[in-house]
Amino acid sequence: MYKAFSKVIKEYEETKYKEWVHGAAHFVDNMMKKNVLKVEFMKEPAPPAPAGRGMDITAAGKAHIERKKKNTGSKTSLQPTDVVNKEIEQKRKRDKALMLMRIPGQHYENVRSPSSISLLAKEGLTDVTWRDLTVHKLMQEYNLTFQPNFDDYIFLVIREAELMEQLGFSLPACIRDVAMQKSRLYYELEALTSVIEKYNKNVLSLSPSETFLMKRHLLDMERHILPGLTRVTWTALGIGEYIKDITKGLF
User: Fold this and answer.
1) How high is the pLDDT of residue 89?
2) Which residues are paired to 148 by β-bridges?
3) I want to staple 206 with a disulfide (CB 3.0 to 4.6 A). Which of 82, 138, 178, 210 is the partner?
4) What range(s) does the Dynein heavy chain tail domain occupy (predicted)?
């Protein structure tokens, strides 16, 4: 009886270990192949709440106001400002679709949706490359910022791997190699995050006139940062040198 029970426990243990190895190895492999940087659209500030008169509106009152808005809106003709705002919104959608489709090394859901492709095809922009977009314009002009492309979950996987090894399990080479690089990953992530946050903060603090005067320097800085989007992955040995290169150009 005890022998049969121990056999069941052993089989369960091996099954759970294989499941962990499969998931961890897949995650680690994908994570280390990522470029060290990604780009994200800046979050648009939330519109300020309308100033009230110090009175709370009931649910019935809110419903009445909504009905009034709908009725008023149906009788109002389209104003020139509405047409302009619609064109601006369309341009923003086009620019966002264009950037999402052309950012090197980035993977987004629904990037090549029919609506995005038709929007770009309509203006003959489907063959535009990333370099075409960034050669004369700054990232902030596209409402984009640089961010470290890293998933902290890898440190949990490394800790689990260390515990598995202490329990006597043999680890796959890919997981063992990454576990040995724990310190390197931690310090390089910390250094990269620090320099990119400083760069973003400095750039966003500039006034339009200061941005115009410093545009050549900012474009040169972005050219130094760009390899983090295209070539430098977390397996690279030169991440430290790459970070130093960016740091030299900070103002």
Assistant:
1) 62
2) 37
3) 210
4) 145-242
Q: pTM for this structure?
A: 0.67
**Residues in Cβ contact with 226 at an 8 Å cutoff, skipping those fewer than 6 apart:** 134
* pLDDT one-digit tens code per residue, 41-65: 877 655 555 555 555 666 666 666 6
Query: Per residue in 89-123, pLDDT tens?
Result: 666 655 555 555 455 444 433 344 445 445 445 54
53-56: long-range pairs with CB below 8 Å, 24+: none
Burial (Cβ within 10 Å: 0-12, 13-18, ≥19) of residue 139:
buried
Task: Classify burial at 233, counting beta carbons within 10 Å of its beta carbon; exposed 0-12, middle 13-18, buried 19 or more.
Answer: middle
Inter-residue contact 175 to 28 (CB < 8 Å):
yes
Collect all residues with Cβ–Cβ distance below 8 Å to 146 and sequence separation of at least 6: 37, 38, 39, 139, 196, 199, 200, 225, 228, 229
Reference 211, options 225, 195, 222; nearest CA is 222
State whether residue 250 is helix, strand or coil. coil
Question: Average of pLDDT values for 229-233?
Answer: 88
Cα 206 to its chain centre, rounded Å, is 23
Residue with tokens 């192949």: 33
